[in-house]
Specification:
Layout: E1 7-12, H1 15-25, E2 28-32, E3 36-40, E4 47-52, E5 64-68, H2 72-81, E6 86-92, E7 98-103, E8 109-114, H3 137-152, H4 156-160, E9 163-171, E10 178-179, H5 181-192, E11 195-206, E12 209-218, E13 224-234, E14 240-251, H6 253-268
Parallel strand pairs: 1-4, 5-8, 9-14
Antiparallel strand pairs: 2-3, 3-4, 6-7, 7-8, 9-10, 11-12, 12-13, 13-14
Length: 269
């Protein structure tokens, strides 16, 4: 069964002041009617909505809505300077989150916090849960940075520490698979020896698989680049168990844009 939390809706006394409050927090307003407004969070695609209560006053919700902030202290200071009142400023909690609390104009409790890895992977995570949802964007980004450094420094030991002993690499569906960290390194050494300025860019994470884009220029040329999509599977220990690569030399984005623009110009002539 597929399921994802898309949004939370809270009741408010007055819609206009609620919209102003949440826009001020940094949410982007995407839908509004006489009694309803919906926002999209600035990071990711989660949404949050408010609905005006229709039957007089009501007690504020006992539910707390959490919004994670990468720069929590800076964001709280900025909000305070604009008149937002916090019942608790940024505070380190025993569960390794840093949290700040305030209420919206209708009394709904809001927590701005930063947890990072601890949000999904605390040290006390249940053992039976560790086989799923252990890969996060933060972990995957760290892995990509580590492999870029290991390959750039020609550090075989560091590179081996990133892979499971039986890792498999598949360079497109038409190539024979390569097995083991040593063979993977030899394969990448041969391939990357043709390219310069190699970099890895996070695309996203889905379950135990991380997706990234690899790019590099063809030798000294800047008009042709190597661009590939990577799909990497990880085990709960954070080691890569499978790599699938699909890509090859292609025209650079600048040249491609120029060619596309030329097509449009010819069609308009």
């Amino acid at each position: 069964m597929s399921m994802a939390l898309n949004q939370v809706t809270v009741s408010v006394q007055q819609l206009p002041e609620a919209v102003a409050f949440y826009k001020g927090l940094g949410l982007h307003l995407i839908v509004q009617s006489a009694h309803y407004a919906r926002f999209v969070c600035p990071d990711g695609l989660s949404t949050f909505s408010v609905h005006q209560h229709q039957e007089g006053t009501f007690p504020p919700s006992a539910t707390t809505v959490y919004f994670e902030c990468a720069q929590l202290d800076r964001q709280v200071a900025s909000l305070k300077s604009r008149g937002y009142v916090f019942e608790q400023g940024p505070t380190d909690q025993p569960w390794a989150w840093r949290e700040a609390y305030l209420h919206d104009p209708s009394g709904n409790r809001i927590c701005l916090y930063h947890a990072g890895e601890t949000r999904v992977n605390p040290d006390w995570r249940l053992p039976e849960s560790k086989t799923k949802h252990f890969l996060t964007e933060a972990r995957f980004t760290h892995w990509l940075n580590s492999i870029q450094t290991a390959l750039g420094d020609n550090d075989a030991a560091s590179l081996r520490s990133l892979f499971a002993p039986d890792v498999r690499l598949l360079e497109s569906p038409f190539a024979a698979p390569v097995f083991g960290p040593l063979k993977v390194k030899q394969h990448w050494d041969r391939a990357m020896g043709l390219y310069a300025n190699v970099s890895y860019h996070l695309i996203g994470v889905q379950g135990a698989i991380g997706y990234a884009q690899l790019e590099g220029t063809w030798g000294a040329s800047e008009s042709v680049v190597y661009s590939a999509m990577l799909a990497l599977r990880f085990n709960p220990a954070g080691l890569c168990t499978e790599v699938v690569v699909w890509g090859g030399p292609t025209i650079s984005r600048g040249v491609m844009l120029k060619n596309v623009s030329g097509v449009f110009s010819r069609n308009q002539a």
